[in-house]
Amino acid sequence: MFEVEELLKRDKVSLDITWLKDPALEDADSLLPPAVIAREIADDLQAALNEFAAIAEALGEPVVDGIETDASLSL
Fold first, then answer.
1. Which DSSP state fits 8?
2. Is the pTM of this model over 0.70?
């Protein structure tokens, strides 16, 4: 990993990343409907929550429905 300051000292440096375009985003008609995208995001988040709940259980912390029950660990 490089620090920005170190990169800026180099000859012909460019931090322009506009060339990293996703071709799928250019054709809005080919995108999935927002409801489908939202469902996929929710599914991914639920899967991540389940993974963290399994880790908490493996570490001996009680978990109810994928939510940590220890109030000291809640937001």
1. H
2. no
